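Dear colleague,

As promised, here are the two records you asked about, laid out in our usual form so they can be pasted straight into your sheet.

NAME FIELD: protein one
SEQUENCE, THEN STRUCTURE:
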Amino acid sequence: MRSLQLIYEDKNQFDTFLLENSFDYESDCLVRIYVSNHSKEEAVEVSKAIKNLLPNSRIIGCSANGVIFHGKQYESDILVVIEKHEKTNIIKGKVVFENKTTLEIANEIKQNIEEENIALMHILIGNQWTQAGIFLDDMNTVNPGIKLAGGIAGNNMNQDVISFVFDEYEAFEAGLIYAGYSNDDLKIFTMANISHEPISSVYTINEAKDTYLETIEGVPATDWCFEQFGLRRLKEYKKWQQIAEDDELVKFPLIIENSHGLSRFIHYDSTLNKMSLYSSTLPSNTKFRIGYVSPTRCVKECHDICKEVSKHSIESLFCYTCVFRKLYLENCADWELKPFANCNISGAFMLGEIGWNHDRNSLYNGSCCYVGLAENESYFLPDFSVFDNLFHVNTDDDKLLNFVLKKQSLAMTEMNQQLLDKLLVQQEKSKSQLYLDTLTGLANTLKYDIDKSKYGFDKMCMIQIENSNLLVSRFGQEGYHQILKEGIKCILDDNELKNNSRKFYCYALNDTTILVTAAAEVSDEEFMTFIEYLFERYHTMEFNEFPEILINRFILVQDDKELLEKGIIALKECQYLQSHFINYSEVDMSSSESLQKEQDMLNILNYALNHDGIIPYFQGIYDNENKQVAKYEALMRVRDAAGNIYVPSDFMEIAKKYHLYTRLSMIMIGKVLELFEGTGLDVALNLSAYDINYKTVNNFIIEKLSKMKDCSNFVFEILEDESFKDISMLQSFLEKVRKFKVRIAIDDFGIGYSNFISIAQIAPDFIKIDGGIVRNIKKDVIYRKVLENIVFLGKQLDAKIVAEYVEDETIQEEVEKYDIHYSQGYYFARPVPFEMINFESFSCSVKS
């Protein structure tokens, strides 16, 4: 799939954006539009303009309290998200609420989608619909298993516009609009950052009607709130900014019991002198706790989400977040998006968020709900450096505590004092949890960063379990973690470490490595002596409960400002060194620069995948009999934001390492097939074991071929590779594509295992001789003998021979002596983009 986002200005700017990104105007696509501080008429006008340019698009949209574009917040702009899918069918629908129950609405949606297997649905709700929570319960019953993402549409910041939803035909308030994704193999990621900490005992809403809370704990809800929060008076605020700045109640959500952290916010309705919920309802007898909005909890949850994002395949990442979050948690709402800025995250501020919560869809309030999806293997790497200095967010806790202290001075009851005490305890608990590695019980790297500034660490030893993989395979993950805990306990219980606890500090890096650090006042000699002591005692560890031993490697880093960063590089570089005690100065650290280059290339690949930067180049293949360029080979190139072009040797290993290869390959294959379909010109495409062994790519190719009238001009070049020693899967694939008259070539023949029997089973139409052989036929008789044998094999198999890397006239003269059918190389043609191919002339053209 392909996802594009932009801040919309006008139709001309949008048209230019599509052209710059080489977007196919006729393609089927889903367009989602989020407008902030715009009227219904303006929203429909934008939708019509987009529909005019993208006639096959399906459009849904809603009003919002602001939008997020590539990790940044925008107050009064229009966000447009375009998704073009390869294997997903989009079902769009809308429902008007008038005279319908929530169950009837859920059933109406079911009837519209029942022919499709919907995996995910974006659903946008207008009119600040208070029945949204009940509707979601009905959706869970009527349409089980469908994951929903979306929310209650926002309005403008003055609250003088009713929220609405829209498409290219109309905008309406009392209704909803949705888009469902039908794809059995769609990969979906959902997670929410709630950030609310409970600080009270459990209370009960005895009576509730619609959005209004009548009684809590047997007394009128207004009296209960007045007493619990020490309020001088109850007041209604009309504008969001006023609510955030002046309404004390918005600081304390009601956390619903047994709902995995779901919360609701309350406010005072002066017209009826009642307490009311924002855009939602709760049934009578609902149990809850008073909570508070915790920045430290927000940090921890955001960090956990980053770790999960890095593990999941995601091609498009979006968030529905609450307007409250932007207003009362302003600094968190800003930085919690920053780790995903390089993932091009976009989003919208809503009045209530819909997300998947522990196997069911739920209505959130004051949360940030993330939804990611992917059709192919693709991984984002969040920017974890954002968390380096986040201990500064504690100032928000201080503001909150100051507010509570102020209120207590006005109305200090016994219960209020208990509430304050619990708030203080919970705050400290949250901070301690934030800096704790839950597996080992040690402080984590967030705490290390803070302590490093405090104590001035300038030396470190990383203790890494070398045989962790073997232990996991032997005892399973839980068994290994038990061994890890036993090992760490032994080290922490060591008397030398205990007696020097103010000199040496321990932290957990991950589940294989711990850190031992020391401050500048500890001399290098003293630190080395202590680490040598630990090494002598703990470089191997045995336990009575387990028959296996722990084998630990000690890596020492000293006198460096970037201790942790350098230590991590050392871990990578020294993994093959035959020593269990390694000093950082003994390790060749030249690869730190290469690691940065690897990260840079990963960023380039992600940019190219999201901005149509996968470019096919084509190199002419010369017919030695007819004396002209008669065929082409397609070669992948990647283009970065500056227009620089990269060849596979620059990026292919990194693409495979970070699971991006499949996406690159499918885009490349799709473009080449599309460009040469119906031209009658022969073109060769490279396919690797990755492509043929992976079911998704395999099916993608067959599906593309099945939609073409004539595929006889396509040649699939199969790399002679160790991955095809089990040749049955390859033969099955070749049998399928040959039904479409596709021809087969063996690429780089002569460098692999050269199993002639397997090659005979493949029965190729072409054999391409590896360039390493061709380059040396003039210099070495052995290479000439190899070449003679390949030519002989080709004749026996009735396969045409292609000589690669023909770079000059002398090599071409040698090639012609062996009656080789085709020559390919810079002597005849350099790779060029499709638009630079001269299709009118196939005569040989030697390029310098």
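NAME FIELD: protein two
SEQUENCE, THEN STRUCTURE:
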Amino acid sequence: MSNFKSIYYILFIGSTLFFTFACSPTKQLKENEYLLYRQTIKGNRKIPYDDLSVYYKQTPNRKFLGTTPYVAIYYLGKRNYDSLKTANKRDSIAKKYDQKIEAAKKPKKRRRLEDRKEKRLEVLNKNLKDGNWLMRVPGEKPVIYDSAQMYLTEKQMRYYLHSQGYFLSDVTSDADTSGKKISVTYKIHEGDYYKIKSIKYSIKDKKIDSLVMANLKDSPLKVNNRYKESDVSDERERLTKLLKDKGYFDFSRQYIFFKLDSTIGNKWITMEILIQNPSGQDSHNQYTISQIYFNTDLSPRKEKTRDTLEYRGIHYIFYDKRFSKKLLNSKLSFHPGDLYNQSKIQITQRQLGSMDMYRFVNINFEKNKDSAQTLTAFINTSPLQKYQLTQEYGVNVGQALVPGPFGNITIRARNFLKGYEVYETSFRYAIDGQYGFSDTTGVFRTQEYGVNTSVAFPQIFIPTQLRFKFKEYAPRTKLLTGYNFVMRPEYTRQTIRGALTYSWMPSIFKQYNVSPIDINIINSVKSTNFTNYLAKLDSSGNKLSVSFRPAFVTSFNAYFVYNNSEFGKIKKSKYFKPFVEIGGLIPALLRQTDSTLFGLQYFEFIRLNSDLRFYRPVGKTNVIATRINAGIARPFGNSAKNGNFVLPYEKYFFAGGSNSIRAWRPRRLGPGSWKDPINGYKFEQPGEILLEASLEYRFNIFSFFDGAVFADAGNTWTFNYDETRPGSQFKLDSFYKQIALGIGYGIRLNFSFLILRFDIGSKIYDPGEPQGKRFVAPKLIKYPPFGISNQTALNIGIGYPF
């Protein structure tokens, strides 16, 4: 805690200086300059604020607790900035390098000097253009109020309201001056919106007219709906896609026109949609694919020549015949004789790209000169390396109390059986520090190492016609086997695993994963102290010892993922992952009457888990993220006989840690109101019911430094009464009183490809304390900044917590 206090005092002194500068940035402004301090929108009842705020032509400087510290930092840097001195330095360095380059005799040395010169001058030119480091990176140039930009914002908002059907709307603005600051208010008068009274299609091409009429149900334009320009745009895109998928290769949105009449009164609009023919033609041309050429390797090879063969109408061009024609044919959604279909081309491109075989996949079409209304397709690919070795080294920060090093080495071989298989063997070794389970005297080193081997096939292996239903969904069958070894102070645990997994993606946002076979053979060697500890629990009715017997754990599991977020983009998005697992089906099929199979303990259980997340942008760089995570794990059959109710240890739920309730150490919270009266939160606490919720506001501080404030709530519980952990049982009339609450803040180093996270979480409501004393927030004030011992936890993580 002494280290925490040192950090606290440094932050306190730094923030004091920070706010001293932050409170006086307007003193640097010229006589007729005003700082744009705030912008607000009022009067909008039906149009959301976020839809209007995107039209701001000026954005006020970021604020912190009502101040503008980034502007203050900018001026602090400007005090020590001399553009003339920087320009002279740039000219001097350029002259110096020019002399060295001229004197250099070897071309290699000359190129090296030219590269150095370019890099040095790039930095100095950036300083000349945008100022020094303080001005550019942590600082922000003050946003000076510009009345012309305010009126342009008014105009853009007015246009947007009109595009949403509010033809009688208006936007005005007021600028309120306070000292050298200006706050602008945009006043919105929406009025009533206009609705669509009738829709008429005027299409000269009779074949296209029949297609459009047959698909009207998919149109976003409906009679009696509010007129929206976005619906008009969507209808234009829908019609274009419809016709592109029906052979109309040359069709484009420029052939579609909309005529609107809003003069009929009573706030109604009549709409006419026209699809015109190409100039000089009576109809649009419909194209058929006549030939397909598939180049399996576009890269040039001097020592080899390409060969060509035909299989089921597809012309394959290749160097080496190391591919499966049948499999590649199954990946093509279009064939000779088919009408041109843009959607099937995109599906084919996604199918081939998801095989992990090609650097790129390009599909182009050319019109045939010797045959009217026919096309030739050219599929060009370039294969990835056949053999690949990847290495990953870092710090293991997941559930460890003390982070430790880890290393991963993966060997990959592609297409080694000529069926586009991907073979992988990976090795992992990790060390970290954790509390002992039964020894509370300190932190002990734990080791983990393992090897996994897998083969992935780009198709679904099911011995029925059902496998063909998945061919357009990037199907994959994966066979996996592996060995894992974990050594802790209390036990060593060895696991041999074998699994069969099917996966497919109906769209870029959706993924299914089904493992009908997942077998684990587990052997645990326990220390004497840990054996005695489990025996003590056993005598009190807690059958945790069963989880550490030599075991044969089998399960069927499946999950679905919906994720419409895009890497590197801040947008409104959602993540949803339901998971189901049923254990013990193989012993059940063998009609086992006791809880052992082949002399090994087996488990029958069902485990359900659902993870739901929402992300909402606030401005251009900030995000509000929320998460709800819930699950239950319940033994049944032989595993529930004689009151045992025991799960495999890995199938329990745990709460606490850098991706859970961050005010508690990893896997130490709960269950329920249970807290070890002697050892507190020293030990892992398995539970059978999990409820978690998190709310986090993420914001940019400057450059790659991001910040966050968060609140976490949740706990685990057991289904049955546990004599060794009173208060752990889930009860409808009291569980809500046992939900732990923690709040905190964090710093994230966002390098785009990697996010390093430091979160500090503090307990606010601790269900492990006696009733009446569970609200522990006042202790943070009484003993600042981190409260009493173990009230605050530092979490180090890679990536976002959710």
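A couple of things worth noting about protein two: The radius of gyration is 33 Å. The CA atoms of residues 387 and 413 lie 5 Å apart.

Best,
R.
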